[in-house]
Amino acid sequence: MTTPSQTVGPYLAIGLPWEDGPTVVPQGTPGAVWIRGTVFDGVGEPVPDALIETWQADPAGRFDHPDDPRGRVEGFRGFGRCPTDPDGNYAILTLLPGVVPGNDGKDQAPHIDVSVFARGMLNRTVTRIYFPENTAANAADGVLASVPEDRRGTLVATKTDDGYRFDVRLQGTNETVFFDV
């Protein structure tokens, strides 16, 4: 028998979502894009009770955090949270992030950090969303370069009419690359 300390759910749906969590920026914000996707389990079935959290820089590459050495950004939350619907879908409305400095002094390609919480998982999984139009920046990104070339595609979103699509596959064929943080 599992207890609350052994798995993410069922308390996920009770305490973590909040009403404006999916809107990192308000509807109608100039330049806002949707990041939409589906969370799939190991056999390719949608996960109806997962939660996606995002954390990102603003378009200038700065974070709304007091520890950002370039100064705190006012007015850009940078954090989103969206539970999946019964079909395993999520959607986050945001602005595209800018280039951010890496710990090694080299720039990191624009990306969004993503945490995934789901039933049966002891801990969250962590991944990143990169954007296909940033070809040169993606090629120079140290984190993306650390991923085997044949797996990097699991970290790059697909352009859509109103933003991007980024599916998360927790296991199995084309499993999303997750990072040990």
UniProtKB/TrEMBL annotation:
Residues 17-172 form the Intradiol ring-cleavage dioxygenases domain. InterPro entries: Intradiol_dOase_C (IPR000627), Intradiol_dOase_core (IPR015889), Intradiol_RC_Dioxygenase (IPR050770), Protocat_dOase_a (IPR012786). The keyword Transcription regulation does not apply. One of its GO terms (molecular function) is ferric iron binding. Transmembrane segments: none annotated. Gene3D superfamilies: Aromatic compound dioxygenase. Pfam families: Dioxygenase_C. The keyword Oxidoreductase applies. Keywords: Dioxygenase, Oxidoreductase. Coiled coil: none annotated. Belongs to the intradiol ring-cleavage dioxygenase family. NCBIfam families: protocat_alph. This is Protocatechuate 3,4-dioxygenase subunit alpha. The gene is pcaG.
